[in-house]
Design a protein that fits this description.
33% of the residues lie in helices and 24% in strands. By secondary structure, the chain is an alpha/beta fold.
Length: 368
């Protein structure tokens, strides 16, 4: 893919200094003499600076008590989360993760395919504008997570670092503009165009192939406030991230390998034993009725020769055995198994919730 970058330089009318648009200055005041200025319509200069000092940030707004509560509630969820998960080793980090904002235009053509993979429409023109946020750091494993936090951002929240308290906050290293664009930016634009084509033509995005070139008109860096929770359970590390702006949490919970719900066969066996009791119990009921009532209930009287009250060792007796030993247990297993599994997991979750409540109410030591 070819990238054409355009950069227009403006100069302050007061002191003549070069003006560079970035989020930290909000593009309306000279950083040197303070003279206010405007950018003419259609004239959007590119911020070439990728230094940390030129990037603004969104201040943290959530209290650490709220963050701990949200993260721990998220951790204890999950069917296979270990019951003793709150005894794991936790480490909480307050960190700024870098992002780049890219704005520009794309043009090219696309091919539409049918379900057999043949081209229905070839070399159809395609153009438009884009504005996307892309992860601006160097750690790929974090990039996939942070990118999921970024859907839309209120730019008015971004302020210069000088206006923010940064003590105790980790500042992740920012990648240069071109590296970020090549790694995340162009892929984000390409994916968004595929989504647009899918919505426009009512086809799956996999049935399109586009060939585009991009023209960047603006590229600005800033930092997103996030919380990172590292959890070591057993010999494995698990990472959980929380967006301080939206409160969205993404990560991986520890899984107890040997936590398995009861097998369906256990329910079948239980009701097979019940059926066995009913199978022979009906003979006892028949003998009891013969002794008390007599008449048609007497032995060898075939008046009640049916699947419920027949004599033993006959065809109906065998059918009754099949009903109580096979049909009844199978039906009960189908009906009650989902509830049995839910009860199994619910019992363990209630234990985790109780432990967390003891921690949050000060009856047990904090885990981090």
């Amino acid at each position: 893919m070819n990238i054409k970058e355009t950069e227009e330089v403006l100069h302050c009318t007061g002191c003549g200094a070069k003006l560079i648009y970035n989020f930290a200055t909000h593009a309306n005041k000279c950083e040197y003499c303070g003279n206010a200025y405007k950018i003419k319509a259609g004239n959007k200069p590119v911020s070439a600076g990728s230094k940390t000092s030129n990037a603004g940030c969104i201040p943290f707004k959530r209290d650490i008590t709220e963050v701990k509560s949200k993260l721990l509630h998220w951790i204890i969820e999950g069917d296979q989360t270990p019951t003793d998960i709150l005894s794991a080793d936790f480490e909480l980090e307050k960190a700024y993760f870098p992002l780049w904002y890219f704005e520009g235009k794309y043009k090219g053509h696309f091919n539409a395919l049918n379900k057999k993979g043949k081209v229905d429409g070839a070399d159809q023109p395609l153009s438009g504008a884009f504005s996307i946020y892309a992860y601006g750091g160097k750690a790929e494993e974090e990039g996939s997570v942070i990118s999921n936090f970024v859907t839309s951002i209120d730019k008015s929240l971004i302020v210069p670092f000088d206006d923010v308290e940064t003590d105790g906050v980790t500042l992740n290293k920012i990648a240069d503009r071109n590296s970020c664009w090549n790694t995340y930016g162009n892929l984000s634009v390409a994916n968004s165009v595929y989504v647009q084509l899918s919505n426009q033509y009512g086809k799956d995005s996999s049935l399109f192939k586009h060939y585009l070139t991009y023209e960047l008109e603006a590229a600005n860096a800033f930092y997103l406030p996030c919380w990172s929770l590292s959890c070591m359970y057993g010999d494995t590390f698990y990472d959980v991230y929380m967006d301080d702006i939206s409160g969205k949490i993404i990560g991986e919970r520890p899984v107890e390998q040997y936590m398995e719900p009861p097998l369906r066969a256990a329910i079948f066996k239980k009701y097979a034993l019940v059926g066995l009791g009913l199978w022979f119990g009906m003979l006892i009921v028949r003998a009891f009725l013969a002794a008390i009532v007599g008449g048609h209930f007497n032995p060898y009287d075939n008046y009640y020769n049916n699947i419920l009250f027949s004599e033993g060792a006959g065809l109906y007796w065998l059918l009754r055995g099949a009903l109580f030993l096979l049909v009844l247990p199978a039906v009960m297993a189908i009906i009650f198994y989902p509830n049995m599994v839910n009860k199994f997991y619910r019992k363990r979750k209630e234990t985790r919730i109780k432990d967390l409540d003891l921690i949050l109410t000060g009856r047990k030591p904090e885990v981090f």
